[in-house]
Amino acid sequence: MMGYHKEPELTRKTIINDYMHTGDIGELDNEGFLKITDRKKEMFKTSGGKYIAPAVLESKLKESRFIEQAMVIGESEKMPAAIIQPHFEFLVEWVKRKQLKIDTSSYDAIISNKKVIKRIHKEIVFANAEFGNWEKIKAFELTSEIWSIENGLLTPTMKIKRKAINKKFNHLHNKIYKK
Prior knowledge:
By secondary structure, this protein is α+β, with helices and mostly antiparallel strands. The chain folds into two domains: 1-41, no CATH class; 43-176, GMP Synthetase, Chain A, domain 3 (2-Layer Sandwich). It is 33% helix and 20% strand. The chain contains seven helices and nine strands. It has helices at 8-14, 54-61, 88-97, 107-111, 114-128, 162-168, 170-176; strands at residues 15-16, 19-20, 24-28, 34-39, 44-45, 51-52, 67-73, 81-86, 139-142. A hairpin with a 5-residue loop joins β5 and β6 (51-52). It is elongated. The termini are far apart. The mean pLDDT is 89.
């Protein structure tokens, strides 16, 4: 790329020393291939000065059958945490299989059940296993609302809208960090 058409200032900010700075964060694998893991603008620093790449943690959390969506939070806080939208279809079936006495017609009843919370915590502990101690999710809150394009919490490509989720679930952020 030679630069942006009729945008010399943008070209100067993006192309530095003949390299295009995309804002992506990546790592080289054992075979020398670049794997994009996050966006630089989405990284944040905890109050302890450690940088967190939330997309990597979120992807790992979403590998769980119990977790549909997750957003890692913790900018300028003492630790990373997560706001999680459980995979309700799977959870309803799990509740029935375990013969738990939970009203499965109410997502609020499901997410407030101690056995469900304990099971989600187990999934988080499993996901945390491959991360450094400073990156591990130390606390979480569950939402009963389905994150969707229609309610403005997901983009058309099904990526989370961080600002919208932060605004909507600010009370959960405050609950996690005791504010």
